[in-house]
Specification:
zinc; zinc-finger; 2 strands; metal-binding; Znf_MYND; mainly alpha; MYND-type domain-containing protein
């Protein structure tokens, strides 16, 4: 769950809070929902639904904003460079610029965030295809692919806040998809601690493991 506050009054929400039947925007109660509808949600509801409903729509919006800020922050470092994945200066689809990754990798440190995200999806999808019918969540092959994805995120942790924010968004999205798709309960319980630590490091703060477990 990404959106944990009421769309109308911003109060924290219960897990089973009521939501818009079309776009799944969540509210405290019917009073907040009706108020939000009058204040503009009526005009946005269909657009949010077409964008994948409230969670996905909000994630995509925040992602685009974070990419734009990070590209601007990395502009000086990436002058005259190309993405090591697609070999282009501008992304063919999103038209986004480059960000600077790990400086120890030479030209392989320059990439589009969209290319890095797509590469991570492909790595995990390849493992899923090769392990069709097996327990993908606990297999060594899937674990290696997943570790590659974690490694990419950890590299971005070392960067400034704007690039960190993008890494966090990608980590949160992929983790949510993974848990919701096929991870068994015991595997999730075991690995959530690691992901909690990564999440808080991305956010620039350290939180004791005991506190993390309570929140999960």
């Amino acid at each position: 769950m990404i959106l944990t506050n009421c769309a109308a009054c911003a109060a924290p929400l219960a897990h089973d809070a009521p939501r818009c039947v079309r776009c799944w925007t969540r509210y405290c109660d019917s009073t907040c929902q009706h108020d939000h509808w009058r204040r503009g949600h009526k005009q946005m509801c269909k657009k949010i639904h077409r964008g994948g409903n409230a969670e996905q729509f909000n994630a995509d919006k925040k992602y685009k904003e974070a990419v734009a800020v990070a590209v601007e922050a990395c502009a000086e470092d990436t002058k005259g460079q190309t993405c090591y994945i697609c070999t282009q200066a501008l992304h063919w689809k999103t038209k986004e610029g480059l960000v600077r990754g790990c400086s120890c990798r030479g030209t392989a440190g320059f990439a589009h965030v969209s290319c890095l995200a797509e590469q991570a999806k492909i790595l995990v999808a390849e493992a899923d295809d090769e392990l069709w019918g097996a327990n993908v969540a606990t297999s060594p092959l899937h674990d290696r692919k997943w570790t590659q994805y974690i490694g990419a995120a950890r590299t971005l942790i070392k960067k400034h806040g704007d690039v960190r924010a993008i890494a966090q968004r990608q980590v949160d999205d992929r983790t949510a998809h993974f848990w919701g798709s096929y991870a068994p309960a015991d595997w999730v319980a075991m690995n959530r601690v690691e992901w909690a630590e990564l999440h808080h490091r991305l956010a620039g703060r350290e939180v004791p493991v005991a506190d993390q477990l309570e929140r999960l």
